[in-house]
Structures are given as structure tokens and as C-alpha cells.
Amino acid sequence: MFTELFCRFxxxxxxxxxxxxxxxxxxxxxxxxxxRGNKKILETIQQYIKDNQLEGRxxxxxxxxxGKCIKGPVLKIGxxxxxxxxxxxxxxxxxxxxxxxxxxxxxxx
Length: 109
Ligand code: FES
Prior knowledge:
The chain has helices at about 1-5, 30-50, 90-100, and strands at about 5-10, 15-20, 25-30, 60-65, 75, 80. By secondary structure, the protein is of the alpha+beta class. It has a single domain (about 20-100), classed as Glutaredoxin (3-Layer(aba) Sandwich). Strand 3, helix 2 (about 30-50) and strand 4 (about 60-65) form a beta-alpha-beta unit. FE2/S2 (inorganic) cluster binds next to helix 2.
């Protein structure tokens, strides 16, 4: 699909072209991660995508258990797994993955 190879998006009031820009963002919706708060994390991610106009750059979906329940909630962005994700750290994780798009330059601690 054309939009999976090329996209045009606004960053700080300018337009950039990007290639292969679709990043898959997968949240575990298994029962353990869900019981540990993934519903709120899911909502936070949806809002982050909207606030940062990432709709054309991110494919966000849920997935069944990743087999890392003890370390949940689990989030996968591209090839990177994040464990013990919380409402408090999910924005920092997203900023670290998408900082070139959002302009947010905070790093994970
Ligand atoms: S329920 Fe999320 S990793 Fe198992």
C-alpha cells in the first residue's frame, strides 16, 4: 500500500517526507496485562497518537499474551519490547520511539 511506503506528515509546522514510516505498536491485551492496567495504557497511547498526529505513521493494535505475563504490562513497538509499562512511563517510552516526529526529546531513565 502506498501509505506504507511513503507518508507526508506535519512536524512543528513543516512537512517532511518519510519512507517505510509505518511503525507497528502492539499492546498486550492478555488477561494478566489487562488486569495490571493495560486498559488505561491503551487509552493513553490512543490519545498520544492523536495529539501527535501519528495516525499515518503508526499501526496500533492489540495482541494476545506475549508470554511475558510476570513482567507485564507489555508493549511492543517495532522490534522493541517494553515491560512493566505503566501510565507513568508510557509517554516517555513513546517519546523515545517517536521523538523525531514529535519533537519531544526526553529520554527513558
Ligand atoms: S498477558 Fe500480557 S504478556 Fe501475558
